[in-house]
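Model it.
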Amino acid sequence: MMAKKKICILHASVPFVYGGAEMLVKGLSNNLIRRGFDAEIVQIPYKWYPKDSLFDNLMMWRMLDLTEANGEKIDLVIGTKFPSYGIQHPNKTVWLVHQYRQAYDLYDAPAGLSGAPDGQEIRNTVEQFDRISLSEAKSIYTISENVTKRLKNYNGIDSEALYSPPSLAGRYICNEPEDYVLSVGRLDQLKRNDLLIRALAHCDKKIRVKIAGRGPEADKLEALAASIGVSDRVDFLGYVPDEDLIRLYADALAVYYAPVDEDYGYTTLEAFLSKKPVITCQDSGGVLEFVKGDENGLICPADEREIGLAMEKVSGNIPLARQFGEAGYERVKNISWDNVVDKLTHTL
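Modeled.
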């Protein structure tokens, strides 16, 4: 009997944080195993501050030897999020989740490096690390066209977008819509749940909002809802178990997902697999690879009044909301893990 090919999936993890990247590597591991490979997730805790910690992380990945383990050859390594793709291996493939964006498109953003005393030094180091590490890969894929475009724009490196389904694919359902718009994801500033809450002041008072997720902006968002008098129309649900999340999608009127220049975003696919329209913004990045305005969702300027009008539009026309949801489902129904596995293992 032929031995199973051994594959290590490389992941830079932040302790106690679980989001889209973590779902992606877990899903990849499960589906590699399903397809007959011997797969293992190898992760190193990631810390980007202070500067020395960031540089230490780069070196740890460069120095890590995964050519063999316990005397057995490791046939393939798959790098994902920065800086995991820095590993040196004779058969390295990259499925790029994202680079260190503070050195690239977010360099001049409030959380970017431009304001740091040693920002340019860090940027130069990261660019060199990426150039060397990615040039070693036999194949480079990304999780979305948005990430592919960034990689080409900032590093001049070609890649291919490779979409994956969300972890609960096959389990989503669609029920008759209730009067709420759903938001799902980590509560941080770039997800812009503040716009959704402010939009409630500009739409029919029968429309409610349910926000599922945890994160550093939770207290600020609750305070915002109270300050503008809409607390009675916003439910902060915190962590939601899978079965409850499926039901929340199924019963929603629409799904709001309008992050700033998102890399990919499983929320879009989860909404469409539940046959729900998506309300998003013109600068939401990877979301726009799936959402088409007035076809399967509504694309707004990043403006609370416009978002309020969008919520009213689907609330006041349920047949239209259903039509958008059906079109969204058709857009994403064929995204599969088998295609991902085929592409990432083609060098074996």
